[in-house]
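Private note to self, pasted from the team thread so I don't lose it. Backbone tokens:
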């Protein structure tokens, strides 16, 4: 074999070895040394719907006065379970800050009775009152901050309307009943965290100070309610 042919053979062998080694390294780098980075689950923004349930703790101040017969001022705790539906939209800004808007409607079974006895010329006079909370609805803004990819902390700022029925009776005077829808500003704090996929869980506390109302028995009874509400919510986010 001539020197020229030997040189070509050696060069061919070296080139084949280099290509094989390079292919081996490329294969190892793609499938062994550098696997694709995992995708972290994230709490989504956009439209959402949800169900919620919790407990209402109403503080109801009742001031009743019937001239010469009965006068009282008492604070009642009208407590009960509450639950309902929500619809909202939220959006992240700068990948950290959040702003949402929400509508909701709830039903509550919070109620309480009140009984008192006064003396009218030595004769006992019985006064009976009852507060019953029916339904509520409202709207809110939810500004918040992303705590991590799966968790959001927020505050609730809104206005709620609640349907409250008050019944009372007084010996020798009669009875009265009035159902009134009272409105009031609401504010609170909450946290939402991703469960799986499009589902998330929310927990929050909200305080609402409602406008007062009056009944028509005797000189009238003033009813001044407020509510401490504790809620859990299950949300579905649309893609």
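Design output:
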């Amino acid at each position: 074999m001539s020197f020229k042919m030997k040189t070509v053979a050696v060069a061919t062998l070296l080139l084949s070895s280099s290509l094989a080694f390079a292919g081996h390294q490329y294969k190892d780098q793609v499938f062994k040394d550098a696997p694709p980075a995992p995708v972290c689950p994230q709490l989504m923004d956009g439209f959402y719907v949800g169900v919620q349930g919790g407990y209402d703790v109403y503080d109801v101040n009742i001031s009743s006065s019937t001239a010469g017969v009965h006068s009282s001022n008492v604070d009642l705790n009208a407590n009960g379970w509450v639950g309902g539906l929500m619809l909202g939209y939220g959006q992240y800004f700068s990948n950290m800050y959040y702003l949402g808007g929400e509508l909701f409607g709830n039903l509550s079974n919070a109620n309480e009775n009140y009984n008192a006895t006064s003396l009218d010329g030595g004769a006992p006079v019985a006064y009976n009152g009852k507060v019953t909370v029916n339904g509520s609805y409202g709207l809110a803004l939810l500004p918040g901050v992303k705590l991590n990819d799966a968790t959001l902390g927020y505050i609730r700022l809104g206005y709620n309307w609640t349907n409250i029925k008050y019944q009372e009776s007084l010996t020798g005077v009669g009875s009265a009943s009035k159902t009134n829808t009272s409105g009031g500003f609401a504010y609170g704090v909450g946290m939402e965290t991703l469960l799986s996929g499009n589902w998330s869980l929310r927990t929050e506390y909200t305080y609402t100070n409602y406008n007062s109302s009056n009944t028509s028995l005797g000189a009238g009874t003033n009813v001044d309610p407020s509510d401490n509400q504790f809620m859990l919510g299950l949300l579905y986010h649309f893609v």
